[in-house]
Each structure stands twice: as structure tokens, then as C-alpha cells.
What does this fold into?
Amino acid sequence: MPVLYSFRRCPFAMRARLAVYYSKNECVIREILLSNKPTELVEISPKATVPVMLLSNGLVIEESLEIMEWCFKKNDPYNFMPIYTQHKSDIKKIINLIDGPFKYYLDRYKYSSRYVNEDKIKNRNKACDVLFEIENKINDSHFIFNNKSSYLDLAILPLIRQYMLVDRDWFLTSMPHKKIKNWLNNFLESNALGVVMMKFPVWKRGDKEQVFPLL
Ligand SMILES: N[C@@H](CCC(=O)N[C@@H](CS)C(=O)NCC(=O)O)C(=O)O
It folds into this structure.
């Protein structure tokens, strides 16, 4: 079984866990602390960000989007890949908006105390402007492509969820993008989110391996 190094709250690690879940694959999950990374992780991936997936043939995948692709190439019971392949350049553009400018403003909003010269609310509003571009793409079925979750949902909703969590009241009452709210809400209410947010103890060498997902 592949081994997934993960950190529960990390939106990129959530991508990987969602992909394992939606592809009906299985892996061994090793929950880590970013403040105390296990040497086993650093040895296979010196950049040591999570998620990292170690395949049974020894190959190491160090980027969340690549882990997603690996999962769905192996198994794709919900047919995510055909839509992904068909709209690849649009999907990549949206993901780049989220991983680039949106994440930049999100960090300065969420961790405003770490950025002394940055204004929290200004950054919240800038991130909101980025979301406006996505709001316009959501269709009447509350999704971007077709009428069901897609690869794109798994890739970006974990980061939009993080944005919501900084100030849930503001998001629910004053965030202007109504379609984004509905779209996020579908995700928040999904079984998938419950499964991927299950808590596991921090892994250390010698522990019994934990299979993921636990259904
Ligand atoms: N581009 C990477 C980003 C992963 C990332 O930045 N993960 C964060 C946690 S959310 C991390 O591991 N940071 C390293 C650290 O805090 O030491 C991916 O998509 O996998």
C-alpha cells in the first residue's frame, strides 16, 4: 500500500486524502506535526511539505495535485478524469488563481499577526476579489463543470473552507458570493469531508500502521 504523510488541517493534504477517498484507493496514513517532522519524511522528501506519497515501488510524489492525478489514473469510479482532461487548461487556471494570489491573501488574512505590515481586512477583501472570478463560473447546479463534484472541487474547496473558517460569521453574513457559499456548503455537508477529517494520532516509528480511509 502507498504511504501518505499527511497533516489533518493542511488544505493540500486534504486534497490528497479526498483523492484517495474519491478514487476508492487505500493507503497507509501517517499523521505528522509540521513542527516536528519525522526523519522518514525528510529522507524521502527533503522539501518536507505535506502531503507526500511514497508508492510501493519506491517512487515519491511530493505535490498534492500530482497525488490527485496518480489516484485518479489508478482508479476513477466517479469519472473525474474525463472532465479534467477535457477542461484541463481552464481547471489549471482556476487552481493557479487559488494556489497563487488567493493563498497569498489568505495567509495574510488568516495569520495576520505574523505579517506586521499587512492589513487583515484588506487581505480578506483581496482574496474575496479572487473568488469573484470563480463565482462567475459556477452554474445553476452549484458546480463548475456538470452537476457534480469534480477534480476541481477537491483541489480548491479545502482552501476556500480555510478562508471561511477565519471568520465564519463574516463569511456567512457578508461575503458577497452566494454561489461560492452554496458550493462550499455542499462540500461541508459531504460524507467525504467527514471521512477525510477523521483524527489520527501523530505517527511515530514502530506504531501499528493506520489504513486510510476508515469507512
Ligand atoms: N505545493 C505543495 C504545498 C504543500 C504545503 O505547502 N503544505 C504545507 C502545510 S499546509 C507544508 O507542508 N508546509 C511546510 C511547513 O510548514 O514546514 C502541494 O501542493 O503539495
User: Anything to note?
Assistant: Residues 88-144+150-189 form a domain with the Glutathione S-transferase Yfyf (Class Pi); Chain A, domain 2 fold (CATH 1.20.1050). Residues 7, 10, 12, 34, 49-51, 63-64 surround glutathione (CB under 6 Å).
